[in-house]
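Quick illustration, no need to memorize.
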Amino acid sequence: MLINRLRSCWVAGALIGAALLPLWARDINVRGTVTNIEGEPLYRVSIFNAATNKLVGATNEDGKYLVKIDSEGDLLFSSLGYEEKQVAVRGELTIDVELEPSAVALNEVVVSAKRIVDKVVPEPTDIEVKGNYFHVKTRVKIPRELFTTDARMIIQPGIYNVSRGQMVFLKPVVFDGKEYAITQERMYDYDTRQDPLSQYVQIKTTSSRKDDWVGYNDSTYVENPNDDFRCDMMVAMENYNRVLYRDTFVIARGVVNPLRFLEYDIPGSAVKNERFFPQPEMQLRDTRGDVNLTFRVNQSRLNLDDGNNREEMQRLVARLREVENDPNARLKSFSIAGTASPDGSYEKNLKLAGQRMSSAMDWVLKELNESTRRQLDISTDAAVEPWSRVVELLRDDGKNQEADAIQAIIDQYPDNPNRQWRKVVSLPFYRPLITGTYLPQLRRVSYELLFSQYRYLTDEEIRTLYRTNSAELTRNEFWRLYNQAGSADEREAICRRALEVYPKFLVAATDLAALLIEKGKPDAELLVPYLSLPDLPDETRLNQVVAWMAVGKFGQADSLAADLPDTGVYHKARVYAAALNGRYSEVIQEVSADSPFNEVLMLLAIKANDQAWEKAKLLGNSARENYIKAVAANRVDEVVLALSYLESAFKKDPSLRDVASIDGDVLELLQQHDDEE
C-alpha cells in the first residue's frame, strides 16, 4: 500500500490532493482563507509544500483550506490566472492569503509562432467568436519521454479577459497512463466517481514510441466580447508522489471577430400603443371660498338688498350646491365670523356681532341638506372691531390728521373701549365722516368654505407640483409633463423622476430607454425587470434588444428579438441580432444587401476569405474600410498590401490601433508594422 499518495483533483485550473508527511516531522494543522484582491473567496486554489513541491490541499467553495505541514515549512499557493504566492508558516495556525491576478501574459513559455519551444507545447491558435461564445481549437504536443504509464497528464485552458482581469475556465482534458489508472481504481475501491476529474479522463493503454499530439476543442460563454482576451493553457503531469511537470502557455491573444465593425442603425422607439398609456387620475385637493356680507347700524337681520349681499349669497349658495352635487367633492368645514363696529357700548356691540353671525349662519345652513350639515365642521367667531381699525382705514385714505386724533384717544385709554368710544364720538369730524363712511365697513359677516374635491389638475398645477413635491404626481401627470417637455434632457429627467416614484412605470422606462439609445448611451439593465411581464409593448422589447446588442450581449438580444414582429424596424433588429449572435447563414444575404462594407464583414465571418478579399478591393478609403481591407488581405497572405492598408487606417483614425491590439486577425500584422517603423 502506498504511504505517500497524491490524489489528483484539478478542476478549473487547480490540482487538488493530500499528502501525508513523514512521521518524524513536526506537523501542525494550518487553516485559512484565500481571496482575490477584491476580497472574494477563490475556489480550488492548489496548496503545495514549497520544500517538497507536493500538493497538500486545496481551497473549498468558500476559499477556506486545512493542510498539515511542518511548523517551520513554507506553503505555496497557486491558481490559474493568479500570481503564485509563497508564505512561511512559522508556527502560525491561521494564514489568510490574498492572490493577485497575473498582471501580464504568463511568460514561463509563450508560443508566438507555430514552433516547439519546450518539452510540452500547445499549438498557437485563434479565439474565434460567434455571438457571446468563444471557440478554442488547438493541439498539445507531448514528448514521449514525459508520458509514462504511471502518470497523469492534465490540460486546462482558460479564457482570460485582460481588460477586466477575469478568467473563464474551459473543460479540462485528463490522460491517465495504464498503471496510474489501475492504481486510481484501487484507491477509490473501484468507484472512480469519487475522482472529480473522472468524467474528463482518457486512458492510454501503452506508452508511445513517439511524441503524441493531443487535440482540444471547446467553447464558452463570455460577456463583453469586444474586450481584450487571451487564451492561457496550463499543462501539468503528476504521479502519486509528486508533480513531475507544470507549465503555463499563452496560446492565443486577441479575438477574431470581424463583426465588431458591423454597421447598423436601429433607433430606439417610444411606446405608441395607447393601451399602455397611463390613464388620468383625479387628485384630492382642498379649495377655499369666502363671502362677505354687510349689516345696517344696530341691526342683526341680514338684508339682501344692502350692498352686494344678494350677489354674495347667490355666489355662496351656487358654490354649496356645486360641491353637494359633485360626487368627487365634499365640504370639510364652514367657518363664519361676525363683526360689529366699535360705535357704542362694547358689550352691546359684541352681542350684536353674535346675533348677526347667528342670523347669517341660519340662513346658510338651511341651504344645505341634512347629510352635508352632519358631516360639516362648523366654527364661529364673533368680535367687535377696535378703533385702531378705523385709524388704519383713515390712513389708507390719506386722512392722517383725523387718524392721529383717534390714535391719541386709543393711547390715552388703551384698555377701555367704552371710554375710547365716548371720546371719539365728541370729535368734530365723527358724524360727517366716521359714521357714514368707515363704520359701515366694519359691520359685516364673512364666511370661509373649505372643501375637498377630486379633480384633474391643470397643466400649471402639475408643473408647480413637479417643482415642489413631485412625489404627489400621478403616472398620468408625469406623462403629461413628459409630452410637454422641450428638450431630450428635460424628458429624461422627468422619466427618471417618474421611475423613482413609480418603479414599475413601464411606459416611462421604455421611453427613457429610447431616449438613452438616441443619445448613444443605452442602458442594458433598465428594462430587464419588465421583461417577465405577460403583456409588453413591442417597443419595450425592441429597446432592450438594441441595448443588449450595444453592450455585447448578443445571445440575449437574439433570443428576445424572436418575440418581435417581423416587420419594419423590428425585422431589422431581428436580422442584426441574429448576425451578431453567429447565425450567419440565416441572415448573410440581408445584412450583405445593406452595404458593401457589411458584405465583406459577413464573408470574413464565414471564412469565405477569397471572396471577402475580392469584395474588399472595391471598398472606399475610409479608415474602417482600409482596416477591413488589411484584415481581408492578411487572410489571403497578401501581407505587403495588408500592411499598407493598416498603416493608412491608423493615419486616418489613430484609435484603430487600440482595436488592432486586441484583434486576433491583425495582431501579428500589427507587430510586423511596429517592427518596421
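The first helix runs from residue 178 to 187.
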